[in-house]
Amino acid sequence: MRRTNRKLHTMPSDDLVDTFSTTFGRRPDGLWQAPGRVNLIGEHTDYNGGLCLPVALEVRTTVAAARREDTLVRMVSLDLPGDVVEVDLDHVGSDGVTGWAAYVAGVLWALREDGLAVAGADLAVTSTVPMGAGLSSSAALEASVAAAADGLFGLGLLGDDAGRARLAAACQRAENEIAGAPTGGMDQAVSLRAREGHALLLDFRDGSAEQVPLDLERHGLALLVVDTRATHALVDGQYESRRRSCERAAEQLGVSTLREVDPAGLDAALARLADAETRRRVRHVVTEIARVRGCVDALRAGDVEEVGRLFCASHDSLRDDYEVSCVELDTAVTAALQAGALGARMTGGGFGGSAVALVRADALEVTERSVRDAFATGGLGEPAFLVLEHAGGPAGPVTG
Ligand code: ADP
Ligand code: MG
Questions:
Q1: Ligand 1 test: best mutation among 87, 138, 191, 227, most atoms within 8 Å of CB?
Q2: What residues contact residue 2 under an 8 Å CB cut-off, 6+ apart?
Q3: Ligand 1, closest atom to CA 139?
Q4: Whole-number mean pLDDT of the chain?
Q5: CB 84 less than 6 A from any atom of ligand 1
Q6: How do residues 50-60 score in pLDDT, each as one tens digit?
């Protein structure tokens, strides 16, 4: 058992069932769970119709739930202080549900909007996914609720990938329309559709997903996730401005999305763009999509050195061309590489959140120390670490 992963191995079930029972005065009908994720490569590609390659973490959100016959959703989180939150499903779309309740009630609402026979529920949640670290605690919460709804109301959607994709779509709709976060669908897809021991290649052009074996153990490797604990103010407009820049560039190039720009013809495409900043943004997106393909090929060929090189090239591109890195992410990446990581990069939208390094399993501690020391030297806040030695499985009922 690794120190940094301790929380993951403690069973939250007893506390969760106790809290459920004392809060709602009855036993839950069951327990369901869903993983957080880390994206291996393919950043800011989703809204460009591109590719990304996330992997489910072993850290998870667990929900204890019981069905109701009315439309009330009552919920409590062990991780957030506060009273029980109550929301009526009939009012979710119109009332402006705020806070964490939006993710929970939003999923039940979206499933109902999709024509599924879903009613209210009592729910208690707890999670080992750090909140706001870019490891998608929000999608883990949504997917655990979707899995619970599947069990409580007998939807039968967890049984195959098409059903899971439908649950993921409802989760994304909840996040976009009820929680008001304009995210692209990667997080929900991997939380519901991942396969243990695999990364998930997602294609945003057609919504398809492909399993890519990720056998870290066989190569004596692990992923070290560094939660920089940094969140930078004034970043909201940055995401929107990147998105708009990509849309404008696609329009100027006469393509529906930047996915349609052939990497072989990139220089010619760039020459048609007048603005230097736009050229850099386009270069990131087009080369990043190519790097996702390269990474999948390298994983299939067992060429882990190449995977590491692609991680580094991705980070450079995000830092220099897309300009979404920050001092904490750059420090984490540089320090991991100095300690001998095969590759390292920022992961997620940027401006804080987490970095991921591909490291030899026997170098985890020295890499962690190197990052910790670099943060101290740089006067940065203390980072947190999470180790992934085995790609996690998807959302589902808690068994055993
Ligand atoms: P990330 O998904 O990167 O962790 P987000 O800002 O997208 O960050 O989502 C974090 C939000 O999700 C929290 O502020 C909270 O509203 C909700 N959330 C996640 N996990 C939990 C939990 N265990 N209990 C209550 N709310 C949660
Ligand atoms: Mg999120």
A1: 138
A2: 364, 387, 389
A3: 2
A4: 94
A5: no
A6: 999 999 999 99
User: pLDDT exceeding 90 applies to what percent of the chain?
Assistant: 90
Ligand 1: which residue has its CA nearest to atom 11? 138
Retrieve residue 172's tokens: 């994304």
Spatial strand order of the sheet with 121-127 comes to 85-88, 72-77, 121-127, 54-67, 30-39, 396-397
Tokens of 342: 């095969």
- Measured in Å, residue 375 CA sits from the centre of ligand 1 at 25
What would the pLDDT profile of 175-200 be if each residue is shown by its tens digit?
A: 999 999 888 899 999 999 999 999 99
Which residue in this structure is represented by tokens 């930078």?
Answer: 232
Catalytic machinery residues? 187
Neighbours of 171 (CB within 10 A): 31
Domain locations along the chain = 14-214, 217-388
**pTM of the prediction?**
0.94
- 217-388 folds as Alpha-Beta Plaits (3.30.70)
- Which residues share a beta bridge with 198? 213
Instruction: Judge if the beta carbon of residue 75 lies within 6 A of ligand 1.
Output: no
**Does 136 contact ligand 1 (Cβ within 6 A)?**
yes
Pocket of ligand 1, candidates 16, 100, 129: which has the most ligand atoms within 8 Å of its Cβ, to mutate? 100
Beta partners for 327?
none
Is the CB of 227 within 6 Å of ligand 1? no
Q: Which string of DSSP letters, residue by residue, matches 208-268? A: EEEEEE--TGGGTEEEEEEEEEEE-TT-HHHHHHHHHHHHHHHHHHT-SSGGGS-GGGHHH
The yes/no answer on whether domain 14-214 falls in CATH 3.90.870.40 is no
